[in-house]
Design the sequence.
């Protein structure tokens, strides 16, 4: 059976050129060592850092490597809280943020911060509003479920007006659409655009203080300890960030499209009223179409989408959301065939319920 992969927002298959770039470094020296093997590893890291920092819109010295987007977001938020010595013990974040942002709340509260969630619109977007005083604002560039994009330029003005640091989770947008230059901190990951898993990065503007969460060794400018994964970093650096990211329109009769405004072109989020996403996704998988209901890290959960709940959907409606996400190796034929399979599968489920 032909398989059609439509879950690039969860992870995208490794690009061939990335695989080739990683191979020479799988048995590399330690980049902190002074011998030739170590110097060669350090050079490979520096080359990758230059490419990735440029793609992120940060300076070479402002870009640090992490184990992925989750650690990067935790470092951005908790690391800033640990180093914060200002007067505002309040942090605000969008209610539709990824779990790696939202679930820092318990730690922040133990550090003495108040955490407030910003309301979102019907598409999971965070409308720009006057938020009052805060130490940090965290608003993602594009929502990982609905694909709705946020106005980071406007949020930057809000942050400046109240003296807050602006963090943006740019995991879904790196290499797909330009990352605006207004963030104080941006966090990204490699594997959403054909890079290796287990490697991410954080950009921290000069003057913004972030304390380490992983100590020891002094790697990554003493902000993130641990021997660098040279092969993964080299693979991350080999991603063609300037390559066109294919965008497709799905023809899905009976679907209610969640996002109709500004959105990331590679994500199509829909609901088929009356059909729970879990049952539809199981049927689609059997028919050769891989899709999801949201983040892969919560795919084992039967909970309703927190993004749709925050956007004002009912519990039942929030269990109907399905995400189809395309990527670097998706073709027009894939989308056409998948649309046919999805339409037929939905019709079959409905017919069985009559």
Sequence:
């Amino acid at each position: 059976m032909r398989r059609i992969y439509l879950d690039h927002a969860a992870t995208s298959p490794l690009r061939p050129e990335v695989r080739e770039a990683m191979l020479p470094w799988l048995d590399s020296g330690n980049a902190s060592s002074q011998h030739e093997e170590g110097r060669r590893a350090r050079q490979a890291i520096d080359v990758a850092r230059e490419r990735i920092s440029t793609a992120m819109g940060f300076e070479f010295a402002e870009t640090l490597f992490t184990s992925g987007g989750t650690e990067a977001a935790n470092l951005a938020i908790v690391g800033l809280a640990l180093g914060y010595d200002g007067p505002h013990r309040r942090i605000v974040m969008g209610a539709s943020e990824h779990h790696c942002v939202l679930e820092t709340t318990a730690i922040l509260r133990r550090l003495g911060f108040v955490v407030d969630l910003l309301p979102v619109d019907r598409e999971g977007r965070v409308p720009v509003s006057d938020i009052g005083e805060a130490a940090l604002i965290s608003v993602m560039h594009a929502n990982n479920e609905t694909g709705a994009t946020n106005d980071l330029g406007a949020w930057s003005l809000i942050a400046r007006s109240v003296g807050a640091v602006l963090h943006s989770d740019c995991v879904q947008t790196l290499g797909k659409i330009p990352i605006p230059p207004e963030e104080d901190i941006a966090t990204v990951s490699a594997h959403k655009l054909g890079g290796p898993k287990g490697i991410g990065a954080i950009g921290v503007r000069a003057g913004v203080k972030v304390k380490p969460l992983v100590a020891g060794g002094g790697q990554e400018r003493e902000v993130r300890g641990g021997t660098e994964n040279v092969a993964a970093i080299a693979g991350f650096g080999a991603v063609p960030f300037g390559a066109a990211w294919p965008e497709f329109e799905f023809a899905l009769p009976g679907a209610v499209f969640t996002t109709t405004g500004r959105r990331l072109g590679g994500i199509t989020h829909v609901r088929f009223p009356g059909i729970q996403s879990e049952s539809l996704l199981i049927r689609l998988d059997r028919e050769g179409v891989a899709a999801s209901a949201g983040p892969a890290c919560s795919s084992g959960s039967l909970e309703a989408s927190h993004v749709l709940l925050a956007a004002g959907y009912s519990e039942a409606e929030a269990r109907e959301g399905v995400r189809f996400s395309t990527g670097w190796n998706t073709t027009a034929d894939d989308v056409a065939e998948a649309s046919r399979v999805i339409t037929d599968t939905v019709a079959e489920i409905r017919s069985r319920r009559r």
User: Anything to note?
Assistant: The domain at 16-237 is CATH 3.40.640.10 (Aspartate Aminotransferase; domain 2). The chain has eleven helices and twelve strands. The chain has two domains: 4-12+244-352, 16-237.
